[in-house]
Design brief:
With 372 residues, the protein is of the alpha+beta class. It has 13 helices and 15 strands. The protein folds into 3 domains: 77 residues, DNA Primase, Chain A; 109 residues, DNA primase DNAg catalytic core, N-terminal domain (Alpha-Beta Complex); 162 residues, Dna Topoisomerase Vi A Subunit, Chain: A, domain 2. Strands 1-2-3-4-5 form a 5-stranded antiparallel beta sheet. Helix 2 crosses helix 3. The longest helix is centred in the last third of the chain and has 35 residues. The relative contact order is 0.09. Bound molecules: zinc ion (ZN).
């Protein structure tokens, strides 16, 4: 057993790995309820040693620790097993350790908030409402396409709206964060006057779990991720880079780092690019994100006026050309930057076609109403 590498040892217990990447192996973590493989076994060249680590529940160790944690062996037995003695069989019954994962708001809150979100999404598309039309035009001026606005369920809330007793949705452009089958937060981008009164541009519905990973669901099956500072920047970048292989996410602010629950979504990626604003908060965020994962690369802001992705886009920065060198080094054997970009274009075209179709159906319905 001494000659057994840690990956083989763990394979005896957990079966074939869900994923491999050179000298890295990934399983669904047996110690917590793991929705994507976040249990990593990798070789540390410097120490010439295999180690395992779960990016979800943060358990880690070497071969001996594995035998103790998983097979329930004593430290002494584990040591003897690894040094040539007969190894005890895997124990039949396993009790996963309970890990405190961040949980979404209560079901009641989600139901009520989702009702409000859907109402606001319909209102944003109401051409009779001049303020909604202005909000839609504002989103368009930020480069967001109609399909993006619809898919993200962006909405317009004309005034403070009671969602649950004592919990009011602020007015403005509404941004809901749906992931893992739950509604985590609802934010409003406040109208100018309200923003001046409250001293901030954004305000969340009370009871929201902000600092959740916006866009996390798109990471399922993706190989490359881009983490950025805010939702609108994430949506804009998604239009240029989003595809089945690449997902753009945000923690919703420069200050928040992913908690274990969201880290376990990121663990699946070949590469995570971090794009933060060109200001002090962004610089701090770039520094802090560096330690989130080993396969992470911090992107330097382009040499252009403006402080964030939307500014850069407005100032004529070619986002594709800017990020292409970073994409080119992402899993070069499996994925080419050109392929990612081509797939995004195809996806955008499909969404546009679907939008045109919905539009036509609407026109026909209105015509039928008018002529009935
Ligand atoms: Zn775990």
């Amino acid at each position: 057993m001494a000659a057994l590498d840690l990956p083989e040892l763990i394979q005896q217990d957990l079966g074939a790995p869900a994923r491999t990447r050179s000298r890295e192996y990934w399983w669904r973590c047996p110690f917590h309820d793991d929705s994507s493989p976040s249990f990593q076994v990798s070789y540390y060249e410097a120490r010439q040693k295999w180690r395992w680590k779960c990016w979800g529940c943060a358990r880690s160790g070497d071969a001996r620790d594995w035998l103790v944690a998983w097979r329930g062996m004593s430290t002494g037995d584990a040591w003897r097993a690894l040094n040539g003695d007969a190894c005890a069989p895997a124990r039949a019954e396993v009790r996963p350790r309970q890990v405190a994962f961040s949980e979404p708001p209560a079901r009641e809150w989600q139901d009520a908030a989702l009702d409000a979100v859907l109402g606001c999404a319909a209102e944003l598309q109401n051409p009779q409402d001049a303020k909604a039309a202005a909000a839609l035009a504002w989103l368009r001026a930020r480069g967001l396409r109609p399909a993006t606005v619809e898919r993200a369920l962006l909405g317009w809330n004309p005034e403070w709206r009671e969602v649950l007793p004592g919990q009011k949705l602020p007015p403005g452009i509404i941004i809901p964060a749906l992931a893992d089958g739950a509604l985590w937060y609802v934010k409003a981008r406040l109208p100018k006057r309200e923003a001046a009164r409250l001293g901030d541009k954004y305000l969340a519905l009370a009871g929201s779990r902000t600092a959740s990973l916006y866009g996390a669901d798109a990471l399922l099956g993706a190989r490359v991720g881009i983490a950025t500072e805010g939702e609108f920047d994430a949506l804009l970048l998604g239009q240029f880079f989003g595809s089945a292989e690449l997902a753009v996410v945000t923690m919703g602010s420069a200050g928040a780092l992913p908690s274990p629950r969201w880290k376990s979504h990121l663990a699946w990626l070949d590469k995570l690019l971090v794009v933060m604003d060109a200001d002090d908060a962004g610089a701090k965020a770039r520094e802090r994100w560096q330690h989130v994962a080993r396969w992470l690369q911090v992107v330097e802001p382009p040499a252009a006026p403006g402080k964030d992705v939307t500014d850069w886009w407005k100032n004529g920065v070619n986002l594709r050309e800017w990020l292409k060198p970073y994409l080119a080094t992402a899993a070069p054997d499996k994925l080419r930057a050109d392929d990612i970009l081509a797939r995004t274009l195809a996806q955008n075209a499909l969404q546009d076609a679907a939008g045109v179709q919905r539009e036509l159906v609407g026109v026909v319905a209105r015509w039928q109403d008018a002529t009935a």
